[in-house]
Amino acid sequence: MGSVQKLADGKFEVRYKLLDTVKGSQLSTLSQGVTEKYTRLSAHKIADDIYQKLTGTRGAFATRIAYVNENRAAKDYRLVVADADGEGMQVAVRSNEPIISPAWSPDGGKVAYVSFEQRKPVIYVQNLVTGQRSVVSNQKGSNSAPSWSPDGSKLAIALSKDGHYQVYSVNADGSGLRRLSNSNGIDTEPQFSADGQSIYFTSDRSGGPQVYKMPASGGNATRVTFNGSYNISPRVASDGKTLAWVSQRDGGYSLFAMDLASGQELRLADGATEPSFSPNGKYIMYATKGGGRTGLAVVSTDGRIKQRLSTNAGNIREPNWGPFMK
Amino acid sequence: MQHFKSLAFIITSAALLAACKTPVKLNDTPVADRTVPATTAQPANDRDIRPVETGATDPLNDPKGVLANRSVYFDFDSYTVRADGKPVVENHASYLTKNTSRKILIQGNTDERGGTEYNLALGQKRAEAVRKSMNSLGVSDSQMEAVSLGEEKPKATGSDEAAWAENRRADIVYQ
Predict the structure, then answer these.
(1) ipTM
(2) Which residue range is the domain that position B97 belongs to?
(3) Are A100 and B116 a contacting pair at CB < 8 A?
(4) DSSP state of B76
(5) Full domain range(s) for residue A15
């Protein structure tokens, strides 16, 4: 049950109550005054509250996503921030050269991304509220694949500066560059684990690309994927229980999830690339092609629920799901 | 009389020899001190002409010259310079070794198939292959930077083998 009332000062007072009709008790209530701009957020927070009370897991309705909307013919590339359902789009970066690999900071205030505005891939970190940005890595060669440490102090990145792509770490201000991986092949796509102790990454040291794991300070890597000859884009859920990645099977690219305790694999979606976990670990957003364009879709980690996000014209790709915010 | 001539000769020779060995105090320049035909810079003659090549005659800017060809193509899943790419590498290596102040960006590309970041790394391998070939032909690393555009800036749109072949490419871009 809920109500929305417009107040004298132009704000809206949003109220709701969640009732358990069986037990005859009140499960939750929420009441807040918000400006018009944030009424949608209010609705999301109510949905989150309901979700949490009913499932025990924090809802992801009030979270945001970042993605790239590109029009190559027009040389128009935009990094867009939107609600998790695709509404409420705002442009964070607009460029006439490509942008890829956006990554939200753990506090939700910044986004790291790779920009080609200097005719080569360079990693930037941008404060979303102020619009201020700085270069985190522009070493000789290519700089890409930024991934934040859970405490927001460092980024794991992939650089070609030593002649071939390897994984490095760097402080969020761009200082303290350190090489972490050590192979003669391609090591890239680093992803910190939720506890910050390990880094998952893609490596083709054994021939084709596979997912590996190493300590966050570097060191010996152990292989994680063994089925198929092309496994890339590892992502770890925030509860550390599930690994998602993209595997090339039957000539196409499919999204897989692995229960890290048992090693059991589940094929979640076909025609899927560029996955990103929701902050509660229950959903994975990914890019998919259809109708001649690339768009976004969401699948639940158990594979049961699948939905396409309806968005405006343009090619939408490179989704990154933002964190819980206060 | 003969005796005197011989003596005079000996004395003159001795004097000459002495003059050759020691710093000369005579007014005229002794043979030993004359400047050797110069390998060092000579003072400019005011009738000299030093030729200047404007951009128009730089072979790099000749649209019909061999340096106009700046792309090296690769087979699928391949990261070695193909035979048809070697002339491009050689021509530009030759230019760069003669023009050591010129710098290039070598941009590697892939076709659209596969993951974004992994393709960035594969494109890098193509750029590195060209860089290494030029390096072995004498081009300094300070003149080259190998980078990748992955699948992000395809030259040919389309999802067929012809488009893919066109995009499996490294480009030489003069800075």
Answers:
(1) 0.87
(2) 69-174
(3) yes
(4) T
(5) 2-55
